[in-house]
Design goal:
By secondary structure, the chain is an alpha+beta fold. Helix content is 44%, strand content 13%. Strands 1-2-6-3 form a four-stranded antiparallel sheet, covered by helices on one side. The chain has a two-stranded antiparallel sheet with strand order 4-5.
């Protein structure tokens, strides 16, 4: 009888400890869930801040280029008299009112010398890569554009990030080939698939172009 009572007591204790362990595990899992949720939410906030910084940079570059052209009659980089205007500039453009590929690197020198930008090299984005000025980069993209990509012409943004950037600039345009901001694939077929943004891809494969207007 005494042995039977001890066995019952031990069995009850084991049940108690098992129940207590399950409660602990559920608390730990809840804490982990909250932490993961906070982490993902924090990443979303970080992405939003980076996207807003890209929008601001696009706008600053666009304004700087227009300010230069209004002041001197030529695009920066294309100005044939830049070395006469500014003592710290030695490279001139050909004055054909187009920023050619050979002139894209001196755009920033002209802008810096005129006081329109702070640096004489192409700006970088918080996602990485550089902004550069291109002319007629694609048969569907005519005129001057501000391009954001890596030096190897690879993408900077994921499709989701690119769509958020487009929404910031163009509003709720459903077509990524319309508006001031255009989205192109870097050749990997990860950004655009079957004529639409590849929402399932998390790879940084999108190159963006903003129209200089």
């Amino acid at each position: 009888m005494f042995k039977s009572q001890n066995t019952l007591l031990l069995h009850s204790k084991n049940k108690y400890f098992k129940a207590f362990s399950l409660i602990e595990i559920s608390i730990v899992l809840t804490i982990i869930g909250v932490m993961l949720g906070a982490m993902f939410h924090g990443q979303e906030l970080l992405d939003s801040a980076k996207i807003q910084s890209v929008v601001s940079e696009y706008q600053k570059i666009n304004l700087a280029i227009h300010s230069y052209k209004e002041s001197y009659g030529f695009y920066p980089g294309d100005d044939p008299k830049a070395s006469e205007r500014f003592i710290d500039v030695s490279n001139n453009g050909n004055g054909n009112h187009i920023i050619d590929e050979s002139e894209s690197n001196i755009v920033w020198q002209h802008l810096k010398a005129s006081g329109n930008t702070e640096n004489s090299t192409s700006p970088t984005s918080r996602f990485g890569g550089n902004f550069e000025i291109v002319y007629n980069p694609d048969s569907h993209l005519q005129g001057h554009w501000i391009k954001l990509s890596n030096p190897q012409n690879s993408g900077i943004l994921t499709p989701k990030q690119a769509q958020k950037l487009k929404t910031k600039i163009d509003g709720n345009h459903s077509v990524f080939t319309e508006g001031y901001l255009q989205i192109k694939d870097d050749g990997s077929d990860e950004c655009i698939k079957s004529g639409a943004l590849n929402a399932n891809s998390t790879k940084s494969s999108c190159i963006t172009f903003m129209k200089i207007s």
